[in-house]
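Hi, here's the filled form for the chain we discussed.

Project: internal
Contact: R.S.
Residues: 95
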Amino acid sequence: MSSYRYNALGWRTVKRFDTSMGGYDGIDQERVMLYDAAWRMVEERVDTDLDDDVDYVSQQFWGLRYVDDAVAKRINRDLADPDGRCRRPFGRNRF
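And the returned structure, exactly as it came back:
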């Protein structure tokens, strides 16, 4: 079971769903997606227990060569640490 919200352009901005593998036990996770003008996801805020605060933030960084030029992805699970950590660079670093 899941529910979605979309903005005026038809882009999905919120996804709420059940993460259990067995049977349905209620919606227990929410993901808020933020996009740039080229409709590339630049940030995803994840609340894993629906307690009105974000549990972690995932950020995608895009290059300039073409629309799918993914450069890096950073997942910050410690929101008290504003720098986060670069979890998985895509290909070679092009910074």
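Let me know if anything looks off before we file it.
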